[in-house]
Amino acid sequence: MPGTQPSRLIRLQPIDDVAIAATDIAAGSQVDAGDGPLTARDDIGRGHKIALRDLRSGVPVLRYGQVIGFAGRDIAAGEHVHLHNLEYREFQRDYEFAVDAASRSCSPSRSGPPSTATCAPTARSAPATTSAC
User: Fold this and answer.
1) Out of 3.80.30.20, 2.30.130.110, 3.40.50.300, 1.20.1640.10, which CATH number does the structure's domain 6-87 have?
2) With a cut of 70, which residues of the chain have pLDDT below it?
């Protein structure tokens, strides 16, 4: 059996239920999105989704940390996730934007290259650093 290939999947959030295939994945191939080996149950085309865990019918499906739909039926880990097994419904959304972002007050560096600045934290941010803002 071929080795596990972690670079073949794109997963941005650890809570994601699906990952995106960076290349075509043949059924039976071993892939890894960071939680250990996963066997593709179906052929997964580049840009399509693969289930990272078993999903019960009706549960919200997360990609990039966001609800992208609901499982239209039970979906097994390694299965292709697409229109045939994903439903779209109305649900309550929270549209807060960048609530985890740290606010910084930045001024150009006088001694470093033009791409650096000294950033001082505001009330919600971390300690001061020297970096591009």
Assistant:
1) 2.30.130.110
2) 1-7, 95, 97-133
